[in-house]
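Posted in: Structural Biology > Protein-Ligand Complexes

Title: Requesting predicted complex, flavin mononucleotide in pocket

I'd be grateful if someone could produce the C-alpha cells for the following input. Sequence and ligand are given below.
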Amino acid sequence: MELRKVIMERRSIRKFTPQAVDRALLESLLKQALWAPSGMNRQPWKFVVFQGASLRRLLDFSAGIAETIDEALKAQQFNEKMRNFVKGYFKDLGGASTAVAAFGQQMEDKREEVANLYSAAAMFYNFLLLAYEAGLATCWMTGYLNKEAEFKKMLDIGNYALVGLTPVGYPDQTPPVPPRKHEDILWLN
Ligand SMILES: Cc1cc2nc3c(=O)[nH]c(=O)nc-3n(C[C@H](O)[C@H](O)[C@H](O)COP(=O)(O)O)c2cc1C
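-- Reply #1 --
Done. Output follows.
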C-alpha cells in the first residue's frame, strides 16, 4: 500500500473482532518498526506484548484506571455518554486479543531522555502504520500515564517511561474521520 494512503487512512480503532493476531505476523511488524531513527542511534526503547494471561492482567489493571479518569474526562468537557464509552473501553480495550506497549529509556540527562522518548514514539508510530498496512487496527493510548508508576511496577520494567499502549486486532468498526486542522504550518520566509 502507498505510504501516503497508510498515513491518511489509519484510524484509531476502539472495537475489535475476536480474531487472534498471528504471533509471527506481530513479531515481524514489531521488528520492522524498530527501523525507526533514534537519538545518537541509542535505540533506547522496548516493546511489551500482552496476550493470553498477561492481557487478562492488563485488563484488570485497566479497569482500575477506568475508575480514576472520570474527573480528567469531565475537565476535557466530555459528556456523560462519551465518559461512559471511554471508561468501558479501558475495561475491555474494545475486545482486542492483543495489546502492545512502547517504552523509552529514562536517562540521568533529561535532554537525552526527551530524545529517547521521541525515538520510542517514532518506533511506536512505525508500528501503528505497519499494522494498518497488514490489515490490523490499533489505537495509541496514553491513559495509562494516570497510573504509570503502578503500571511499570506490574511489568517490572525499570527505568523505562511509557510512550503509549495500543490494543491490536482486527477492526470491528469504521469510525468517522476526525478532521485535521490545516492551519498548523508556520512558514518562515
Ligand atoms: C499521544 C496520543 C495519546 C492518545 N491517547 C488516547 C487514549 O488514551 N485513549 C484513546 O481512546 N485514544 C487516544 N489517542 C487517539 C486519538 O484520540 C486519535 O489519534 C485522534 O482522535 C485522531 O484520530 P485518528 O487516530 O483516528 O486519526 C491518543 C493519540 C495519541 C497520538
